[in-house]
Amino acid sequence: MVGLTRPTGAGDIIPPVTSEAWGSQPTSSTSGVSPSAALRHILLWASRRGQIKRAVTSAPVTRDVVRRFVAGETIEDAVAVTRALTGEGLTVSLDHLGEDTLDARTARAAVAAYCSLAGRLADEGLAPMAEMSVKLSAVGQALDESLALDNARLICEAARAAGSSVTIDMEDHTTTDSTLRVVSLIRQDFPSTGAVLQASLHRTADDCRALGVPGSRVRLCKGAYQEPASLAWQRPDDIRHAYLRCLSILIGGSALPMAATHDPKLVEATGRLVSDIGGPGFRHEYQMLFGIRPDEQRRLVAARETVRVYVPFGVQWYGYLMRRMAERPANTALFLRALVSRN
Ligand SMILES: Cc1cc2nc3c(=O)[nH]c(=O)nc-3n(C[C@H](O)[C@H](O)[C@H](O)COP(=O)(O)OP(=O)(O)OC[C@H]3O[C@@H](n4cnc5c(N)ncnc54)[C@H](O)[C@@H]3O)c2cc1C
Hints:
Order of helices and strands: HHHHHEHEHEHEHEHEHEHEHH
Distance between the termini: 27 Å
Strand order of the largest sheet: 3-2-1-8-7-6-5-4
CATH topology of the domain at 76-314: TIM Barrel
Bound molecules: flavin-adenine dinucleotide
Largest sheet: 8 strands, parallel
Number of strands: 8
Low-confidence stretches: 1-31
Helix content: 40-55%
Number of helices: 14
C-alpha cells in the first residue's frame, strides 16, 4: 500500500477505503518537463490556433468525436439531446459553452442564450428534468463580480419562470471566494440554486461544513483545474480520500449532495455513504458528463438512482474540449478512455 496523506478532521466520518481498493495511480513527474506539462502546452497552443481549429472542426471524424461529448451548436441541438436523455429516465444540466468573457456585451449574449433555452425547455415540457449550469466567468465575473451576480440572477429568474433551476459551476481557485459569495447572495432569492465544490482543494472540507445544511444542493467534483500543491491535493488517492470526507460532511449535514464523478470506486462508495450516514430515502444524485460512461449512467437509472447528465452545447466547443483536456492531464485520459469504452 502506498503511503497516504489522509486528510483528517475531528468529527468527520472517514469511510474505510484503502488505496488498494482504489488501485494505484501514476503520479506526474516532478523534475524537468513532465509529459503531462508538455501535453498541456501543446493543447493550449492548439486551442489558440485558428488553422488547427479549422482543420479539426471540419474533419468528419472530429465531428463524430465531438458529438460524443457536446450536444451541438444550437439551442435546438441541446433541446433534442435533452429530450432523448430524459426519455431514458436521466435528468440533465445544460451548459452553454463560453467562458472568460471580457466584455459586457458578450456576457449579455450568454444571459440571453440561457433565457431562450429556459423558454424552450418550458415549451417542450422538459424544464422539470433539466436544470442549467452557469459559469460566472461567462457572465462577466472577470469584469465585475456584481455584474456577474446581476446576470446570474436574470438566468435564475428565467429558470424559475420556466420551472427549472440553476447550478453555478466552480472554476479555478482564484475565483472560489467570489463564486461562493455570489451563490450565497443568489440563494437568498433562489434557494434551490446549486453550488459546486472541488474536493481536491484543501479548503473544501470547511466549505462543505458551511454549505452542508438541509436542502442545500451541492455538486461535489474532484476539480478540473491544475492547482498548486500549496492549495490542493495532487495524488489521486489523496483526492479520493478528500472527496469521500467532503461527501460525508455533506450527507451528515443533510444537504442534497450531487456526486459528480465517473470514478467507479467513488460511485460505489457514494451509495455506501448515503445508506450508512443518510439512511433510507436520503435524497442525492449522481452526475456525469455527456458521452462519458453512458452505460454506467443507465445502470444507475435502472437501479432507481437519480442521474444527471451534464450536457455542454454551443459554438465554443473547440476551446471547451481543448482547455478541459489541457487543464488537467486526467481530463485528457477521461475523454480518451470514453472513446474506447461505454461503461
Ligand atoms: C457533472 C459534472 C460536473 C462538473 N462540474 C465541474 C465544475 O463545476 N468545476 C470543476 O472544476 N470540475 C467539474 N467537473 C469535472 C471534475 O472536477 C473532474 O475533472 C472530472 O469529472 C474527472 O474526474 P472523475 O472523478 O470523473 O474521474 P477521473 O479522475 O477522471 O477518473 C478516475 C478513475 O475513473 C475511472 N474512469 C474514468 N473514466 C472511465 C471510463 N470511461 N470508463 C471506465 N472507467 C473510467 C478510471 O479508473 C480512472 O482512474 C464536473 C464533472 C462532472 C461529471
